[in-house]
Amino acid sequence: MDEGLAALAGAAIGAAASATGAGLAFGAAVKQERIQARAEHAQWRRQVRRDAYLAFHALIEDVYNKNWDVMEDMSLQGALTPAHVPTSLHEARRAASEVMEPIRRARGVVQVEGPPSIYRLAYQLDLLAHIILDEVAILQSRPSPEMDAIRQADGKLRALQAGAEGFLNAAAKVLDDPEPTAPVSRARR
Predict the structure, then answer these.
(1) Other C-beta atoms within 10 Å of 145: how many?
(2) Which of 33, 120, 164, 187 is surrounded by the most beta carbons within 10 Å?
(3) CA distances (Å), origin 104, targets 35, 54, 107, 132, 150
(4) Environment class of residue 189 by beta-carbon count within 10 Å: exposed (0-12), middle (13-18) or buried (19+)?
(5) Residue 120's closest CA among 162, 184, 163?
(6) Tens of pLDDT along 106-141?
(7) Between 177 and 118, where is the model more confident?
(8) Radius of gyration of the chain (CA)
(9) Do 26 and 151 touch, CB atoms closer than 8 A?
């Protein structure tokens, strides 16, 4: 009977060891799955942010490019281009508003995707684009725009272009973050 008890005890110990090993293996598999899921989520999040940042930047670049051409035509009027034909201020501002609408929507996406530092840059560029579009609308409504006003708007356009480059540089730093969606630690909350 001693041999039977010993065999039974040995079998019980073996079963317990197998169950413990299986439990540890299961726990490791669950942990690995969570790590993989976090990595995939972080990659997805980086892609969504990248798309949001590039869409916003493209809209700001469009404001720069289109208004640069308008400003150049106004500054060269009479010399190399035909005389400027004014448009009504209402129509010029309506056109500017149509340009601003997609910028505001893209800025909202940047706000949702974050981080706050990128949103602040997007907000500043949005405001500057709005100011430029309004100033250009005013210039377009005048039969003979003043060169000083054209130069001032030109300076703001250059600032917009520099700001757009700064936005891209800041966005690249955010996208290089290895854990863009890491939770905020309790100490920072």
Answers:
(1) 20
(2) 164
(3) 36, 14, 5, 15, 25
(4) exposed
(5) 163
(6) 999 999 998 999 999 999 999 999 999 999 999 888
(7) 118
(8) 31
(9) no
